[in-house]
Protein backbone atom coordinates (compact mmCIF):
# COMPACT_ATOMS: atom_id res chain seq x y z
CA UNK A 1 0.00 0.00 0.00
CA UNK A 2 1.35 3.45 -0.90
CA UNK A 3 2.24 5.76 1.95
CA UNK A 4 0.96 9.33 1.85
CA UNK A 5 4.16 10.71 0.29
CA UNK A 6 4.19 8.18 -2.55
CA UNK A 7 0.45 8.55 -3.06
CA UNK A 8 0.90 12.32 -3.42
CA UNK A 9 3.80 11.72 -5.81
CA UNK A 10 1.63 9.57 -8.08
CA UNK A 11 -1.14 12.18 -8.05
CA UNK A 12 1.34 14.94 -8.86
CA UNK A 13 2.74 12.92 -11.76
CA UNK A 14 -0.74 12.21 -13.13
CA UNK A 15 -1.71 15.87 -12.77
CA UNK A 16 1.47 16.99 -14.53
CA UNK A 17 0.64 14.92 -17.61
CA UNK A 18 -2.91 16.28 -17.54
CA UNK A 19 -1.34 19.76 -17.66
CA UNK A 20 0.90 18.72 -20.57
CA UNK A 21 -2.22 17.53 -22.39
CA UNK A 22 -4.00 20.82 -21.67
CA UNK A 23 -0.96 22.72 -22.97
CA UNK A 24 -1.01 20.75 -26.23
CA UNK A 25 -4.77 21.16 -26.58
CA UNK A 26 -4.44 24.94 -26.21
CA UNK A 27 -1.58 24.91 -28.72
CA UNK A 28 -3.74 22.99 -31.19
CA UNK A 29 -6.60 25.44 -30.70
CA UNK A 30 -4.35 28.48 -31.21
CA UNK A 31 -2.52 27.02 -34.22
CA UNK A 32 -5.40 27.83 -36.56
CA UNK A 33 -4.87 31.59 -36.08
CA UNK A 34 -1.28 32.04 -34.89
CA UNK A 35 2.16 30.90 -35.99
CA UNK A 36 4.00 28.12 -34.18
CA UNK A 37 6.67 30.68 -33.23
CA UNK A 38 4.11 32.91 -31.52
CA UNK A 39 2.54 30.01 -29.63
CA UNK A 40 5.97 28.80 -28.50
CA UNK A 41 7.10 32.30 -27.49
CA UNK A 42 4.11 33.16 -25.31
CA UNK A 43 3.81 29.70 -23.77
CA UNK A 44 7.53 29.71 -22.88
CA UNK A 45 7.35 33.18 -21.31
CA UNK A 46 4.36 32.40 -19.11
CA UNK A 47 5.66 28.93 -18.20
CA UNK A 48 8.49 30.60 -16.27
CA UNK A 49 6.02 31.77 -13.60
CA UNK A 50 5.41 28.31 -12.01
CA UNK A 51 9.04 27.29 -12.63
CA UNK A 52 10.19 30.14 -10.33
CA UNK A 53 8.71 28.17 -7.42
CA UNK A 54 11.34 25.49 -8.06
CA UNK A 55 13.97 27.90 -6.73
CA UNK A 56 12.66 27.09 -3.24
CA UNK A 57 14.05 30.27 -1.69
CA UNK A 58 17.46 30.00 -3.34
CA UNK A 59 18.85 32.90 -5.34
CA UNK A 60 18.45 32.69 -9.10
CA UNK A 61 22.18 33.01 -9.71
CA UNK A 62 23.08 30.16 -7.35
CA UNK A 63 20.60 27.74 -8.90
CA UNK A 64 21.41 28.57 -12.52
CA UNK A 65 25.18 28.18 -12.25
CA UNK A 66 26.28 25.69 -14.91
CA UNK A 67 29.29 24.64 -16.94
CA UNK A 68 27.28 22.55 -19.42
CA UNK A 69 26.27 25.26 -21.88
CA UNK A 70 26.74 22.98 -24.89
CA UNK A 71 24.24 20.49 -23.52
CA UNK A 72 21.80 23.29 -22.67
CA UNK A 73 22.14 24.65 -26.22
CA UNK A 74 21.59 21.19 -27.71
CA UNK A 75 18.57 20.63 -25.49
CA UNK A 76 17.15 24.05 -26.40
CA UNK A 77 17.36 23.24 -30.11
CA UNK A 78 15.76 19.84 -29.56
CA UNK A 79 12.93 21.25 -27.45
CA UNK A 80 12.19 23.93 -30.05
CA UNK A 81 12.10 21.30 -32.80
CA UNK A 82 9.89 19.07 -30.65
CA UNK A 83 7.45 21.92 -29.95
CA UNK A 84 7.18 22.94 -33.61
CA UNK A 85 6.83 19.32 -34.76
CA UNK A 86 4.13 18.60 -32.18
CA UNK A 87 2.20 21.77 -33.04
CA UNK A 88 2.30 20.84 -36.73
CA UNK A 89 1.06 17.33 -35.95
CA UNK A 90 -1.73 18.58 -33.68
CA UNK A 91 -2.82 21.09 -36.32
CA UNK A 92 -3.16 18.33 -38.94
CA UNK A 93 -4.50 15.34 -36.97
CA UNK A 94 -7.02 14.38 -34.33
CA UNK A 95 -5.76 15.03 -30.82
CA UNK A 96 -5.70 11.44 -29.50
CA UNK A 97 -4.26 10.06 -32.77
CA UNK A 98 -1.33 12.46 -32.50
CA UNK A 99 -0.63 11.57 -28.88
CA UNK A 100 -0.63 7.85 -29.64
CA UNK A 101 2.25 8.37 -32.10
CA UNK A 102 4.19 10.82 -29.90
CA UNK A 103 4.09 8.24 -27.09
CA UNK A 104 6.45 6.06 -29.13
CA UNK A 105 9.19 8.43 -27.90
CA UNK A 106 10.22 6.17 -24.98
CA UNK A 107 10.51 3.25 -27.42
CA UNK A 108 12.80 5.28 -29.67
CA UNK A 109 14.83 6.14 -26.57
CA UNK A 110 15.25 2.43 -25.93
CA UNK A 111 16.67 1.97 -29.45
CA UNK A 112 18.96 5.02 -29.30
CA UNK A 113 20.36 4.40 -25.81
CA UNK A 114 22.95 1.82 -26.96
CA UNK A 115 24.26 4.31 -29.54
CA UNK A 116 24.44 7.48 -27.44
CA UNK A 117 24.59 6.19 -23.86
CA UNK A 118 26.39 2.86 -24.36
CA UNK A 119 23.50 1.07 -22.66
CA UNK A 120 22.76 -2.54 -23.48
CA UNK A 121 19.35 -3.43 -24.86
CA UNK A 122 17.94 -6.85 -24.05
CA UNK A 123 15.87 -9.15 -26.24
CA UNK A 124 12.90 -8.41 -23.97
CA UNK A 125 13.27 -4.68 -24.62
CA UNK A 126 13.49 -5.29 -28.36
CA UNK A 127 10.25 -7.25 -28.18
CA UNK A 128 8.65 -4.33 -26.31
CA UNK A 129 9.81 -1.95 -29.04
CA UNK A 130 8.44 -4.25 -31.76
CA UNK A 131 5.09 -4.44 -29.96
CA UNK A 132 4.98 -0.66 -29.66
CA UNK A 133 5.75 -0.07 -33.31
CA UNK A 134 3.17 -2.70 -34.26
CA UNK A 135 0.70 -0.53 -32.36
CA UNK A 136 1.90 2.50 -34.34
CA UNK A 137 1.26 0.67 -37.61
CA UNK A 138 -2.25 -0.21 -36.42
CA UNK A 139 -2.91 3.47 -35.66
CA UNK A 140 -1.50 4.65 -39.00
CA UNK A 141 -3.09 1.87 -41.12
CA UNK A 142 -0.76 2.36 -44.12
CA UNK A 143 -2.61 1.69 -47.37
CA UNK A 144 -6.01 1.87 -45.67
CA UNK A 145 -6.26 5.62 -45.08
CA UNK A 146 -4.87 8.68 -46.86
CA UNK A 147 -1.42 9.58 -45.56
CA UNK A 148 -1.40 12.66 -43.35
CA UNK A 149 1.74 14.82 -43.20
CA UNK A 150 0.97 15.37 -39.52
CA UNK A 151 2.24 11.82 -38.94
CA UNK A 152 5.76 12.98 -39.81
CA UNK A 153 5.43 15.80 -37.29
CA UNK A 154 4.30 13.40 -34.57
CA UNK A 155 7.18 11.00 -35.32
CA UNK A 156 9.64 13.92 -35.29
CA UNK A 157 8.28 15.00 -31.90
CA UNK A 158 8.71 11.44 -30.60
CA UNK A 159 12.31 11.39 -31.84
CA UNK A 160 12.99 14.76 -30.20
CA UNK A 161 11.59 13.39 -26.93
CA UNK A 162 14.12 10.57 -27.05
CA UNK A 163 17.00 12.91 -27.93
CA UNK A 164 16.01 15.34 -25.17
CA UNK A 165 16.10 12.53 -22.60
CA UNK A 166 19.52 11.43 -23.85
CA UNK A 167 20.91 14.96 -23.48
CA UNK A 168 19.54 15.23 -19.93
CA UNK A 169 21.16 11.93 -19.01
CA UNK A 170 24.43 13.20 -20.45
CA UNK A 171 24.19 16.21 -18.15
CA UNK A 172 24.14 13.95 -15.12
CA UNK A 173 22.31 14.25 -11.77
CA UNK A 174 24.39 17.19 -10.51
CA UNK A 175 22.71 19.69 -12.82
CA UNK A 176 19.93 21.64 -11.10
CA UNK A 177 16.43 20.78 -12.41
CA UNK A 178 15.64 24.50 -12.28
CA UNK A 179 18.66 25.22 -14.49
CA UNK A 180 17.68 22.49 -16.96
CA UNK A 181 14.16 23.90 -17.32
CA UNK A 182 15.16 27.58 -17.25
CA UNK A 183 17.81 27.37 -19.96
CA UNK A 184 15.53 25.28 -22.17
CA UNK A 185 12.74 27.84 -21.86
CA UNK A 186 15.18 30.74 -22.32
CA UNK A 187 16.39 29.31 -25.63
CA UNK A 188 12.77 28.81 -26.76
CA UNK A 189 11.94 32.41 -25.89
CA UNK A 190 14.95 33.82 -27.75
CA UNK A 191 14.69 31.56 -30.81
CA UNK A 192 10.91 31.81 -31.23
CA UNK A 193 11.15 35.56 -30.54
CA UNK A 194 13.51 35.96 -33.49
CA UNK A 195 11.20 33.94 -35.72
CA UNK A 196 8.26 35.96 -34.45
CA UNK A 197 9.47 39.19 -36.07
CA UNK A 198 7.90 38.15 -39.39
CA UNK A 199 4.88 36.24 -38.12
CA UNK A 200 3.36 38.20 -35.22
CA UNK A 201 -0.40 38.54 -35.02
CA UNK A 202 -1.93 40.77 -32.34
CA UNK A 203 -3.99 38.36 -30.21
CA UNK A 204 -7.53 39.08 -29.10
CA UNK A 205 -8.09 39.37 -25.36
CA UNK A 206 -9.65 35.91 -25.25
CA UNK A 207 -6.76 34.39 -27.18
CA UNK A 208 -4.28 36.17 -24.91
CA UNK A 209 -5.96 34.34 -22.06
CA UNK A 210 -5.40 31.06 -23.91
CA UNK A 211 -1.72 31.95 -24.42
CA UNK A 212 -1.37 32.60 -20.68
CA UNK A 213 -3.15 29.34 -19.80
CA UNK A 214 -0.94 27.45 -22.27
CA UNK A 215 2.21 28.77 -20.60
CA UNK A 216 0.95 28.31 -17.05
CA UNK A 217 -0.10 24.72 -17.76
CA UNK A 218 3.37 23.98 -19.21
CA UNK A 219 5.15 25.49 -16.21
CA UNK A 220 2.79 23.85 -13.74
CA UNK A 221 3.37 20.48 -15.42
CA UNK A 222 7.14 20.90 -15.04
CA UNK A 223 6.76 21.96 -11.40
CA UNK A 224 4.54 18.97 -10.58
CA UNK A 225 7.01 16.55 -12.19
CA UNK A 226 9.78 18.14 -10.11
CA UNK A 227 7.74 17.68 -6.92
CA UNK A 228 6.65 14.16 -7.90
CA UNK A 229 10.24 12.99 -8.41
CA UNK A 230 10.97 13.97 -4.80
CA UNK A 231 8.39 11.39 -3.68
CA UNK A 232 8.40 8.58 -6.25
CA UNK A 233 10.90 7.03 -8.66
CA UNK A 234 11.39 8.09 -12.26
CA UNK A 235 9.88 4.77 -13.37
CA UNK A 236 6.61 5.61 -11.61
CA UNK A 237 6.40 9.03 -13.25
CA UNK A 238 7.26 7.33 -16.56
CA UNK A 239 4.29 5.03 -16.18
CA UNK A 240 2.00 7.98 -15.47
CA UNK A 241 3.10 9.49 -18.80
CA UNK A 242 0.78 7.06 -20.55
CA UNK A 243 -2.24 8.66 -18.88
CA UNK A 244 -1.78 11.31 -21.61
CA UNK A 245 -3.60 9.06 -24.06
CA UNK A 246 -6.62 9.05 -21.72
CA UNK A 247 -6.52 12.81 -21.23
CA UNK A 248 -6.11 13.27 -25.00
CA UNK A 249 -9.15 11.10 -25.71
CA UNK A 250 -11.31 13.00 -23.21
CA UNK A 251 -10.13 16.47 -24.29
CA UNK A 252 -10.42 15.60 -28.00
CA UNK A 253 -14.01 14.42 -27.51
CA UNK A 254 -15.07 17.43 -25.41
CA UNK A 255 -13.41 20.16 -27.51
CA UNK A 256 -13.41 18.82 -31.09
CA UNK A 257 -15.92 15.93 -30.96
CA UNK A 258 -13.10 13.53 -31.89
CA UNK A 259 -14.03 9.89 -31.36
CA UNK A 260 -11.07 7.49 -31.71
CA UNK A 261 -11.93 4.53 -33.93
CA UNK A 262 -11.20 0.90 -33.07
CA UNK A 263 -7.83 0.97 -34.85
CA UNK A 264 -6.63 3.95 -32.80
CA UNK A 265 -7.86 2.37 -29.55
CA UNK A 266 -6.19 -0.97 -30.33
CA UNK A 267 -2.95 0.59 -31.56
CA UNK A 268 -2.75 3.00 -28.63
CA UNK A 269 -3.31 0.12 -26.22
CA UNK A 270 -0.40 -1.81 -27.75
CA UNK A 271 1.85 1.27 -27.48
CA UNK A 272 0.91 1.84 -23.83
CA UNK A 273 1.35 -1.84 -22.92
CA UNK A 274 4.76 -2.00 -24.59
CA UNK A 275 5.87 1.16 -22.81
CA UNK A 276 4.74 -0.10 -19.40
CA UNK A 277 6.43 -3.46 -20.00
CA UNK A 278 9.66 -1.67 -20.88
CA UNK A 279 9.51 0.52 -17.76
CA UNK A 280 8.80 -2.51 -15.56
CA UNK A 281 11.78 -4.35 -17.07
CA UNK A 282 14.07 -1.35 -16.50
CA UNK A 283 12.88 -1.06 -12.89
CA UNK A 284 13.66 -4.72 -12.20
CA UNK A 285 17.15 -4.31 -13.68
CA UNK A 286 17.88 -1.39 -11.34
CA UNK A 287 16.54 -3.34 -8.37
From TrEMBL:
<protein>
    <recommendedName>
        <fullName>EamA domain-containing protein</fullName>
    </recommendedName>
</protein>
<feature type="transmembrane region" description="Helical">
    <location>
        <begin position="124"/>
        <end position="141"/>
    </location>
</feature>
<feature type="transmembrane region" description="Helical">
    <location>
        <begin position="208"/>
        <end position="229"/>
    </location>
</feature>
<feature type="transmembrane region" description="Helical">
    <location>
        <begin position="236"/>
        <end position="256"/>
    </location>
</feature>
<feature type="transmembrane region" description="Helical">
    <location>
        <begin position="147"/>
        <end position="167"/>
    </location>
</feature>
<feature type="domain" description="EamA">
    <location>
        <begin position="8"/>
        <end position="140"/>
    </location>
</feature>
<feature type="transmembrane region" description="Helical">
    <location>
        <begin position="76"/>
        <end position="93"/>
    </location>
</feature>
<keyword id="KW-1133">Transmembrane helix</keyword>
<dbReference type="Pfam" id="PF00892">
    <property type="entry name" value="EamA"/>
</dbReference>
<keyword id="KW-0812">Transmembrane</keyword>
<feature type="transmembrane region" description="Helical">
    <location>
        <begin position="179"/>
        <end position="196"/>
    </location>
</feature>
<feature type="domain" description="EamA">
    <location>
        <begin position="149"/>
        <end position="277"/>
    </location>
</feature>
<dbReference type="InterPro" id="IPR000620">
    <property type="entry name" value="EamA_dom"/>
</dbReference>
<dbReference type="InterPro" id="IPR037185">
    <property type="entry name" value="EmrE-like"/>
</dbReference>
<feature type="transmembrane region" description="Helical">
    <location>
        <begin position="262"/>
        <end position="279"/>
    </location>
</feature>
<keyword id="KW-0472">Membrane</keyword>
<feature type="transmembrane region" description="Helical">
    <location>
        <begin position="37"/>
        <end position="55"/>
    </location>
</feature>
<feature type="transmembrane region" description="Helical">
    <location>
        <begin position="99"/>
        <end position="117"/>
    </location>
</feature>
<dbReference type="GO" id="GO:0016020">
    <property type="term" value="C:membrane"/>
</dbReference>
Amino acid sequence: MLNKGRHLGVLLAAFSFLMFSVMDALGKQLSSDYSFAQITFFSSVFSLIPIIFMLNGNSLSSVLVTTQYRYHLARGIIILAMRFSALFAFSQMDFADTFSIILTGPLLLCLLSPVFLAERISVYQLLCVCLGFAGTIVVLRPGMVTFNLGVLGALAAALCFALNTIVMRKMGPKESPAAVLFYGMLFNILASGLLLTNSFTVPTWSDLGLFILCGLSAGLAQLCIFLALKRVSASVTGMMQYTCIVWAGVIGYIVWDDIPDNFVILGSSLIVISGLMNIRHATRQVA
